[in-house]
Specification:
The complex is a heterodimer.
Chain A: H1 4-19, H2 29-39, H3 45-57, H4 62-105, H5 109-136, H6 141-156, H7 161-173
Helix pairs in contact in A: 1-4, 3-4, 6-7
Chain B: H1 15-28, H2 33-44, H3 50-62, H4 67-109, H5 114-139, H6 146-161, H7 166-182
Helix pairs in contact in B: 1-2, 1-4, 2-4, 3-4, 6-7
Classes of the chains: A mainly alpha, B mainly alpha.
């Protein structure tokens, strides 16, 4: 068990990054990996990718669950509750306020400007989170092939992504990716 | 319009129904929660029109946070104000989160077992591919706009290889991006 001051640091950090996670929470993954693995040494890269894989494989709110599991891994239930709350509560407050203001400013020029400004930044950050997670997982030719194949199939077909995760897990379990 | 009594005020959606709807979105919303949110809120329940749903989706894409919970918050707010938003969040989170945490912490305990480690490695590699594809798909409609692509590549490179914290990357890129957008170059 790590000191509770770390949990406070994690909670504050999550509250900040969740409030600026334009384009959804996956954009925050590279930052969280640096925070939990590199800066604080709370867990190994292996732990981080395991938690990522589990959160992706369990139905439900993946990213909120993933941050909860990071809290759980280091501080148990208190960590899970604090980390998850810091992940969803600030954005929910923002959504609630923004929805009430939306109609007032719907056609405002600055809203269009901001929207088109965010497109390249958000998309770049989402791709970066995929790249960083691929690096954090064991980098083998097999794993890279699975990452590439999953990306191509996802782009080309409307197959339920669950099948791709299952196929990745099966190939891994059969030992093809070591 | 299937309503038999068009003059009657539409009955307020019960909080329980809002919670149940977003529980469904949460559990089935694998890699496409928007699909289920629309199906339930627009088609099945008739809570929102297609135009209202689209407004909510674009608002949520434009704000920070996990977008799909934003759709829950906005739909709940539209239907019942703050209590509706809380019901939607509770439905979306409480059960799936509790079950997920129990399952996840159990798996985490045995994560060192070689078989589970290899399975998780494979899932993780595939999930990384799904993220890359999601970003590429969002970028696809802008593929003929070199400045959009250039900025996206810059964001990708800064975040993947510089190891700078996200707030710094955003502070570096957003002013540039907003300036280009103001000058109508994006």
């Amino acid at each position: 068990m790590k000191p509770a001051s770390g949990l406070l640091a994690l909670t504050l950090h999550l509250a900040i990054v969740s409030s600026i996670s334009f384009g959804g929470f996956p954009t925050v993954l590279p930052d969280m990996r640096a925070f939990a693995v590199t800066s604080h040494d709370w867990m190994t890269d292996q732990d981080f990718t395991n938690i990522f894989a589990m959160a992706q494989a369990i139905p439900g709110p993946n990213m909120i669950l993933m941050m909860g599991l990071i809290g759980w891994k280091v501080w148990g239930l208190a960590g899970a509750l604090a980390a998850s709350t810091a992940t969803f509560a600030p954005p929910c407050a923002i959504y609630f306020t923004a929805f009430r203001l939306m109609h007032r400013f719907q056609e405002a020029h600055w809203q269009r400007v901001l929207r088109s400004a965010l497109i390249p930044v958000t998309t770049g950050l989402i791709i970066a989170s995929g790249v960083v997670m691929a690096q954090a997982a064991a980098v083998t030719w097999g794993a890279l092939a699975v990452t590439g194949a999953a990306a191509v199939v996802m782009l080309m077909t409307r197959l339920n992504p669950l099948w791709l995760l299952a196929a990745g897990g099966a190939l891994g379990g059969l030992g093809f990716l070591v | 319009m299937s309503s038999a009594l068009p003059l009657e005020q539409p009955a307020a959606a019960p909080l329980g129904a809002i919670a149940a709807a977003f529980l469904t979105v949460s559990v089935f919303g694998f890699g496409g929660g928007i699909v289920w949110a629309r199906r339930i809120a627009v088609e099945q329940r008739g809570w929102l029109s297609d135009a209202e749903f689209l407004d909510i989706v674009s608002l949520c894409q434009f704000l920070p946070g996990p977008n799909i919970i934003g759709i829950a918050v906005c739909t709940g707010t539209k239907l019942r104000g703050a209590p509706g938003a809380l019901a939607a969040i509770a439905g979306f989170l409480v059960l799936p989160w509790s079950v997920g945490l129990a399952l996840g912490s159990l798996c985490l305990r045995y994560a060192q077992a070689p078989l589970l480690r290899h399975v998780l490695g494979g899932v993780s590699a595939a999930a990384a591919g799904l993220l890359i594809a999601t970003g590429l798909r969002l970028l696809l409609p802008h593929r003929r706009r070199p400045l959009v692509i250039g900025l996206a590549v810059l964001a990708l490179a800064l975040m993947s290889f510089s190891r700078l914290p996200l707030p710094i990357v955003l502070l570096a890129l957003l002013p540039l991006s907003i300036a280009l957008s103001t000058a109508r170059r994006l």
